[in-house]
Design goal:
By secondary structure, the protein is α/β, with parallel strands linked by helices. It contains ten helices and eight strands. The strands form two sheets. The chain has a six-stranded mixed β-sheet with strand order 1-2-4-3-5-6.
Length: about 270
């Protein structure tokens, strides 16, 4: 009987292990990223947080905010790890000793509208009824992400001079907008196959920025990144831009696989 009780104790944790909702999410990734939710004035934001070893008040660590794409929206608090999760949970990435915050944007449409819930205002139809300036109110998901970053600064050992934002597709749009809203807050931004408002060129001109896009992208035209880079350069900025010949919408794959990208990101510090 005693042996059976011991076996039951050993088996119980295995039975309670979190099951991936997608085969591209490994159990190791789920284990690396703790799951939680954040309440922002009644708006609930699911998120995963990877915590680095050795973080303390005497050893604050950088924070990378990663914004997923449109297809990973939902409330399962997993799908945001489909792209990038394995990279961030890898031993190769661990050398950066960084927190990685991966929030999940809810699915569905805005209340009373046929417009989808998204990170960035820039994804909405570009007509006169849609405000695109960074002085306009953030979407609820983006506002919650920004509030969550403040919460983590207060509750974790985060280095406030090393805050970074990156994202792909819909998250690339979100990255452009978050960076343009507060270029003095972030140490660097790395938007992947996204786009923004070229009018944001001036506020982005002093922010270290590396953008990525495939020139064969049919989901988000490569012109969306090109026009942002041109606007920043015309404003006096010196952004880095990588355009992958023959690559479609999945330009995040070569980006994630390039260690020099993350070496560059984490080398940046807020001025």
């Amino acid at each position: 009987m005693r042996l059976l009780a011991v076996l039951a104790l050993l088996i119980a944790p295995l039975a309670m292990a979190e099951e991936p909702v997608d085969p591209r999410i490994t159990p190791e990734v789920l284990e690396a990223f703790g799951a939680a939710t954040f309440d922002d004035g009644g708006f609930t934001l699911p998120y995963r947080l990877l915590k680095p070893d050795g973080a303390s008040d005497d050893n604050p660590r950088p924070l990378l905010v990663f914004l997923h794409g449109f297809g990973e929206r939902g409330d399962d608090n997993q799908r945001q790890l489909i792209h990038g999760g394995a990279t961030f949970a890898s031993q190769r990435f661990a050398k950066h000793g960084a927190y990685v915050l991966a929030p999940q944007c809810p699915a569905g449409n805005l209340e009373g509208s046929d417009q989808p819930v998204v990170w960035s205002l820039r994804l909405r139809p570009t007509d006169e009824s849609v405000p695109l300036g960074v002085d306009q109110r953030m979407t609820e998901p983006m506002h919650a992400v920004r509030a969550l970053v403040e919460h983590l600064i207060e509750t974790e050992s985060v280095d406030e001079n090393r805050l970074y934002v990156s994202g792909l597709s819909m998250g690339g749009y979100g990255t452009w907008e978050m960076a343009a809203r507060e270029p003095e807050f972030w140490a660097a931004a790395a938007p992947i196959c996204g786009g923004g408002n070229p009018a944001w060129g001036e506020p982005l001109a002093k922010l270290p920025l590396w953008a990525f896009h495939g020139d064969a992208d049919t989901a988000v035209p490569v012109e969306r990144s090109r026009e942002m880079i041109q606007a920043i350069r015309e404003a006096g900025g010196t952004p880095v831009y990588t355009e992958y010949p023959g690559v479609g919408h999945g330009s995040w794959t070569p980006t994630f696989e390039c260690p020099q990208v993350w070496d560059w990101v984490f080398a940046q510090r807020r001025r």
